[in-house]
Amino acid sequence: MTITRVAGNGGLPMINVSNDHADAVISVYAGQVLSFTPKGAADVLFVSDKAYYAEGKAIKGGVPICWPWFGADPEGKGRPAHGFMRNRMWSEWETRDNADGSTTVILGVESSPETLAIWPNAFRLAMEITVGKTLQLALVTRNTGDAAFTITQALHTYFAVGDIAQTTVTGLEGTQYLDKAADGNGATKQQDGAISIASEVDRIYLGVPAEQAIVDGALNRTIRITSSGNKTAVVWNPWAKIAAGMADLQDDDYTRFVCVETTNAADDVVSVAAGSEFRLTAEYSV
């Protein structure tokens, strides 16, 4: 096993992991996995070639962390969408080798006067990343205050695909979803069959099973997602018009990824009691 710490794009601190099973790149900034490449295979994750690597900016791709809210500011105070963890520096808390040849890296953030000014709750947040035959992620929220708080959150994962036109998402057949795309008005609909993407898709699936899969015809692979701690999942692809309007995406990048996000979103609100913790987990295998 090899762990190297380097200055990555924009001078941001990165951790490179290489073991007998896979290679990975982890950004300490944002607590974000940017690459997971099983040995002899293609990268499971997508990162835009035009992504920003600068403090205060979110990195477009990999596994951004939305916390302590998903989507717009729930209190309408003008705070940034998707919370304040995907654009700040984290700390490296622990690295270790495991008996199965995998490697675990734990990054974290604790509440500070700065975070308390944004969100008045004491916390200790950890991102546990295990790189092995699979990529295992656990976002662990500990309430270090003396009163319960509530959160919504997401592992906003960008999965690399060979061609979105040859890609389907399975495992959500028959599930109700909130349609958040421009023409959806947030209406509830039911998924009929596998999900294929031929226009903007922005959906919060409700009451989801623990497993989904991305069937990638162009790369001839299936990426399996197994999660716990969530009742919702988000499927997102901006399609051509929105992608063209994003400065940190190439115009045709929408053809190369799909976001299938493990979430506590919409009414899937988590209450974390004082002194307790909550784990949101996802595992990705090919």
Automatic annotation (TrEMBL):
Keyword check for Ribosomal protein:
no
Q: Which reaction does it catalyse?
A: alpha-D-glucose 6-phosphate = beta-D-glucose 6-phosphate
Q: What is its EC number?
A: 5.1.3.15
| Gene Ontology CC | cytoplasm
GO MF, one annotated term: carbohydrate binding
Keywords assigned by UniProt, alphabetized: Isomerase
Active-site residues (renumbered): 156, 261
Cited Pfam families = Aldose_epim (PF01263)
Top-level class of the enzyme under EC nomenclature: isomerase
Please verify whether the record's keywords include Coiled coil: no
**InterPro entries attached here?**
Aldose_1/G6P_1-epimerase, G6P_1-epimerase, Gal_mutarotase_sf_dom, GH-type_carb-bd
Its BP terms in the Gene Ontology are: carbohydrate metabolic process
Family from the record: Belongs to the glucose-6-phosphate 1-epimerase family.
Q: What is this protein called?
A: Putative glucose-6-phosphate 1-epimerase
Q: What is the lineage of its organism?
A: Bacteria, Pseudomonadati, Pseudomonadota, Gammaproteobacteria, Thiotrichales
